[in-house]
Amino acid sequence: MFGIDTYSFGTLWPSLLGVAGMTAAMIWAFVKVRKLMNEDAHKHGK
């Protein structure tokens, strides 16, 4: 079956770290935009 040895893990972890970082950045941006949209809606009385 499929196994990960130390060499494969050594070459894959930077990519996995990059994917995790991009995912975290997109989630943070989504939360920030939602917060700003809600504040703007309350400010304009919608």
Describe the protein's architecture and organization.
The chain has 46 residues and is mostly helical. It contains one helix and no strands. It has one helix spanning 6-43. The longest helix is centred in the middle third of the chain and has 38 residues, at 6-43. The protein is rod-shaped and about 60 Å long. The termini are far apart. The mean pLDDT is 90.
Tags for this model:
0% strand, rod-shaped, 83% helix, 1 helix, mainly alpha, 46 residues
In short:
The protein is 83% helix and 0% strand. The protein has 46 residues and is an all-alpha fold.
Topology, element by element:
Elements: H1 6-43
Shape: rod-shaped
- Total number of helices: 1
- Based on CA atoms alone, the radius of gyration comes out at 19 Å
- Strand tally is 0
What is the helix fraction of residues, given as a range? over 70%
Structural class estimated from helices and strands: mainly alpha
Distance between the termini: 57 Å
Strand content is under 5%
Poorly predicted sequence stretches spanning 5 or more consecutive residues = none
What integer is the average pLDDT?
A: 90
Describe the largest sheet: none
Give helix and strand order, one letter per element, not per position: H
